[in-house]
Amino acid sequence: MSTVILVTGGTGLVGKAIEYVIENEPAGSRFGKRPNEKWIFASSSEADLRDPAQTRKLYEKYQPTHVIHLAALVGGLFKNMKYKLTFLRENILINDNVLHASYEHKTQKLVSCLSTCVFPDKVEYPLTELNIHNGPPHESNFGYAHAKRMVDVQNHAYKEEFGCNFTSAIPTNVFGPHDNYDLEDSHVIPGLIHKCYLAKKNKTPFVVSGTGKPLRQFIYSRDLAKLFIWQLREYDDVEPVILSVGEDEEVSIKEVADAIVKAVGFQGSYTFDTSRADGQYRKPASNKKLLSLTGDFKFTPFEEALNESVKWFLENYNNARI
Ligand code: NDP
Questions:
Q1: Residue 117 CA, closest ligand 1 atom number
Q2: pTM of the predicted model, to two decimals?
Q3: In this structure, is residue 205 part of a structural domain?
Q4: Interface predicted TM-score (ipTM) of this complex, two decimals
Q5: Which CATH number fits the domain that encloses residue 97?
Q6: Quick check: is 194 in a domain?
Q7: Is position 128 within any domain?
Q8: 83, burial (CB in 10 Å: exposed 0-12, middle 13-18, buried 19+)
Q9: What is d(CA 62, CA 4) in angstroms, rounded to the nearest whole number?
Q10: Which is catalytic among the residues 144, 158, 181, 197?
C-alpha cells in the first residue's frame, strides 16, 4: 500500500525544512524517504484552505493517507495585535477545513501544528503539555492562540466521536532557511539577520531592540522537520508534544545577535536600544515528554544552525521573503 503524505503550508519555513530532510536524509532511514511514500508540499495557490470546497478538492486530488498540517495565518506581535479577529477566524477556518477533510477522507494520521503562544499568560514554568487550557492566553495574540488551542479540542472530539488518529505538535521559536525576513513583521532571528545584513551593506550601525537579556528556546527548522516526521510515523496519541530544545539550551537575544554579527561578518557599530520593550524575560518549555519518547534525538548546535541559516539568506537574498 502506498503512503501519500500531504504537507499543508508546504512552502513555508517548516514545510520547506521537511522537504529538505525528506530529500537529504538517507532513503529508508528514520527521517529519510521510505520507498512506498509520496510527499506532497501544498501552497496556498494550489488550495486556499480557508475555503471548504478548495480544501475538499485538494484532498480529492491527492487522496492523502497522512497529513502534516502546517498552513496558518502567521505573523509577528504587531500584526497579531492589530488583526485579532482575522487571526482567529482565518485560522479557525483553515483548521476546521483540514481536520474535517481528513476525517471525511479517512486520513490514517493527522499531525497539526500549534505554538507555545497557546499557553496561558499566567502559568507555572516550565510549560508542559498538561497546562495548555489552564487560563487565558496573552491578550496580545489571543485570536491566534485560541484558534490554535481549538485544534487540540477538535482532535479530542474527532477521536472520541469517530476514532480519528489526530494529534498536534507544539514547537517553540523556529528559525532556518526560507524564513520570513520582513523587517516589520518577522520573528527575532530572521529580523536581526536582515537588519545586520543591511547594516553591513549600508555601513550603518546594527541596532538590536531591547537589552538583549531575554532568554528563548530556538529550534532549527531542519531539527523540527525531523521531529514532525518522527511524530507522524512513530507517535500515536492525541495528546500534543512540545517540540523544543531543552530548558538548559535557552539562548539570550544578545547571544543571538553576537552569533549573527559573526556569521554576517559585520564589523561596524553594534548597540542595544534599551528604550525598546524586552517582552517576557523567559518562558521556558519542557521537552521531557519529547525526549522520553524519541530516545537519543540530537539537536543541531545553535551556532551551527544559525550559520547555515545566515548562509542561506545571503545566497538567496533575491528570492527570500523580505
Ligand atoms: P510560514 O509563514 O513560513 O508559512 C505559512 C504557510 O502556510 C505557507 O506555506 C503558506 O502558503 C501557508 N498558508 C497560509 N495561509 C494559507 C491558506 N489560506 N491556505 C493554504 N495555505 C496557507 O509559516 P511557518 O512555516 O513558520 O509556520 C508553520 C506552522 O508552524 C504554522 O502553523 C505556525 O503557526 C507554526 N509555528 C511557527 C513558529 C515559528 O517560529 N515560525 C513557532 C511555532 C509554531 P503560501 O506561502 O503558499 O501562501
A1: 43
A2: 0.97
A3: no
A4: 0.99
A5: 3.40.50.720
A6: no
A7: yes
A8: middle
A9: 7
A10: 144
